[in-house]
Amino acid sequence: MITVLIGENSFETTRALEKIAADFAGMAEKFDGESLELSQLPDLLLGGTLFATERLIIIRHLSDNKQLWDVLPDWLEKVGSDTHVVLVEPKPDKRTKTYKDLKKFAEVQEFHLWSDRDVMLAEKWVSEEAKRQGLVLDKKLAQQLVTRIGMDQWQLYHAVEKLAVLSDVTPEVIDQTIEANPTENVFNLLDAALRSDTQKVSNMIRTLQLSQDPYMTFGLLGGQVFQLAALAVSDRPSSEVAKDIGAHPYALGKLAPFAKKLGRSGTKKIVKIFADADTAMKSTATDPWILIEQALIKTASV
Fold first, then answer.
1. What residues in the chain have per-residue pLDDT under 50?
2. What's the predicted TM-score (pTM) here?
3. The domain made up of 2-110 is a member of CATH 1.10.3720.10
């Protein structure tokens, strides 16, 4: 039997491997495909052992070993029913003959990284994972957690782990316990500017300077301003706009009141403010954090 685990979602791949190993009575044999020699293939795929009638063989990154990857199709039909070969391939070349043959002879499971278009999937998964760990998270709390952390499944898992030991989880507890990802920090920064809270803007800038890259921060701010503009020029609900532009519906829902208040005219002014700041970043030697703060202070006055 041959199983191929494909995709860059290492969390789901790890879970799949754990399940396969748990269903196997013996000890798995693990190999790095890049360092395997051609002479090892017969023993790996056909040979038995003196200590077990069944074998579980896990090989990672075999596709990076071109010599073995190219000859693998010659061995696929020879793998016995008492041997379970698991190939872990984050990014195999799907154009190769070997991959196409594997699709015929093996069970192929794909685990893709989540993107902003998978928000509903992530929120559902968070609720289910929380339940598995003995924690009840309602829909709003799951939304808050995904918005605060992002789409990294490992980070979501560890956040649920951290919350699961607490007796009561509220929105305030999540804010106090779970560190926000850069996108969430940037959203709060723009939120403060849109509320004309210039003091909060300055305080947040001082904090972000200690750990964040200014160019990445500005890029994330630019993405938030784009989302604000998309809402301002559309007459449709924020959930539909989010789907169109591949954004988080919860985040756009929080931006929607500002877009409505500013209208197209006010939003256009903010877009120009950030366009001018972008030009200044590329053409002057001014500290980028100063340019970011100036852009946000100007936004506060729109």
1. none
2. 0.67
3. no
